[in-house]
Amino acid sequence: MALKDKSQPVALVASPERPSRADAESAIRTLLRWAGDDPDREGLLDTPARVARAYEEFFAGYSKDPIEILSTTFSEVEGYDEMVILTNIRFESHCEHHMAPIIGKAHVAYLPDHRVVGISKLARLVDIYAKRLQIQEKMTVQIADALQEVLQPKGVAVVIEASHQCMTTRGIHKPGTSLVTSRMLGAFRDDPATRREFMSIIGSQQIHD
Ligand SMILES: [Zn+2]
């Protein structure tokens, strides 16, 4: 099953054009030289290899399929039809404009319609999209739409708040700012009481941070 968002392929790892690890390390040597340093000095000798390994971690989400992660659902829910909410899912991502870190938390909720998914899957879903180059708005939509597509629930809500290091450590230099984005589908969009309940639950969580 493919995601509707064709702008971001589910897996890029299989691409035959993927450069080799050696290509990646040599690109990092170039960046070190371009920054004004000497990649052959002792302290930097292992840096290209370390950075390449760090990139494997930062961008591990390209090799994982969010739809597959969610596809084990449980239909025996004893008639449970109230909201399922996982709050304060901490994530680390990188902005696609500067490759600078985006650090924040996501709150994910859905209103089940016969099917639920293991709660750890909600956190993994956030991670899969976070571990790619992102803009926060797109990530918010991707998480919500993947849940909608697989679980077909009565509603989905995703709120993300994050600090963007491209704004805090460079450019406009505004530390302490955070960007809040949300996507509400189904009952969370159409029913003000459902949306209010969700917002009040994630609001009360934040007080205890
Ligand atoms: Zn940026």
UniProtKB/TrEMBL annotation:
Keywords: GTP-binding, Hydrolase, Metal-binding, Nucleotide-binding, One-carbon metabolism, Zinc. Its EC number is 3.5.4.16. InterPro entries: GTP-CH-I_C/QueF, GTP-CH-I_N, GTP_CycHdrlase_I, GTP_CycHdrlase_I_CS, GTP_CycHdrlase_I_dom. It catalyses: GTP + H2O = 7,8-dihydroneopterin 3'-triphosphate + formate + H(+). Zn(2+) binds at C95, H98, C166. Residues 1-22 are annotated as: Disordered. Residues 25-202 form the GTP cyclohydrolase I domain. It is an enzyme of class 3 (hydrolase). This is GTP cyclohydrolase 1. The lineage of its organism: Bacteria, Pseudomonadati, Pseudomonadota, Betaproteobacteria, Burkholderiales. The gene is folE.
